[in-house]
Amino acid sequence: MSRVTESILSGQAYADNTRGPMLDLSYGGQNGWMPNLKEWVSNQAYVQGNVIPFLIEPPKFFQYMPNPDKMVQILKALIETHTVSIEGLNAALTAEFAEHAVGGSGEMQKEVTDVKRTRTEVVHTFQEKYGRPIQRFLEYYMHYAMMDPDTKHPNIFTLENAPDDWLADQYTFTVMYVEPDVTLKKPVKAWLVTNMMPDTTGDITGKRNLTEAKSVLDLSVNFGGIALSNWGVLQTAQSILDKVNFVNSNPYSRPAFVSEIQSDVEAATTGFTDDVNAASQEAVQP
User: Over the stretch 195-220, which tens digit does the pLDDT of each residue have?
Assistant: First the structure.
């Protein structure tokens, strides 16, 4: 069965500024008098995918710290590869109305008085690693770049090479969040979020209960942010996706993470291969 020839809407109406393929709503409706199975492909549902975070700009205070390149590497890995889940991204529009009476029957006429975009507040959830490196990094970040809880000043100004100003770009960072389509080639949604910084290290507690199992530590950190989600952001998201080469990135094509038997294991003559080789050498010839 062939698909509707004009099933993809492009180059017209509100499709002009979208990046990926989009179904034409003129086709595919299945809830009229009866289903129209000639257009069943155009009834395909949108399945929300996972966003991919890309660190765009690190905080400038890293430049004044020991090993600034390492600081950038850690923040990039934390945002892009250590994050378990991301929540709080939103670009929904909500209208507000005033109403006035139409006649005396109780009917009301609406007038638009405002439209707001839902605020984005990005929350990343991490699973703490051995030695608590995530909490220690966040604690370091907050002490040096945001505020010391005792002095109420950033500790970076206790360093000899401290900066001369402390505008927000010194202690915040910028991330692009992209939801690609299923082909991984086009952005379906994108948010460019700046003014991001951690609001907590997560609880740093101790306890003792010998009757309970030990537990891992999950950290949910609100990084807040000022978000932009528009056609220009989609265009930038497209340029970022274009740099990602998914060709030959099939997980089934990866080499084995261990390619040979370890030497001390090879030296132990008590295994399967040794038994087979010994039996082969001891075989009685007919």
Answer: 999 999 999 999 999 999 999 999 99
> Which letter does DSSP use for residue 64 in this model?
G
Structure tokens at 196: 């991001």
In sign, the C-alpha dihedral spanning 33, 34, 40, 43 is positive
The C-alpha atoms of residue 273 and residue 285 are separated, in whole angstroms, by: 21
Classify 236 as helix, strand or coil.
helix
- 184, pLDDT greater than 80: yes
Q: Whole-angstrom Cα distance, residue 171 to residue 193?
A: 14
- The angle that helices 68-80 and 133-141 make with each other, rounded to 10 degrees, is 120
Q: What is the pTM of this model?
A: 0.92
Task: List Cβ neighbours of 110 (8 Å cut-off, separation of 6 or more).
Answer: 97, 98, 99
CB count within 10 Å of CB 71 equals 19
The domains of the chain are located at 1-45, 52-252
Phi and psi, residue 272, nearest 5°: -60, -50
CA 158 to chain centroid:
34
Whether residue 177 contacts residue 90, with contact meaning beta carbons closer than 8 Å, is answered with: no
Residues 6+ apart with CB under 8 A from 18: 234
Task: Please give the DSSP secondary-structure letter assigned to residue 81.
Answer: T
Question: Which residues, other chains included, contact 141 with Cβ-Cβ below 8 Å and sequence gap of 6+?
Answer: 59, 197, 198
Tokens encoding 250:
């099939």
Confidence bin at 17 (pLDDT 50/70/90): low
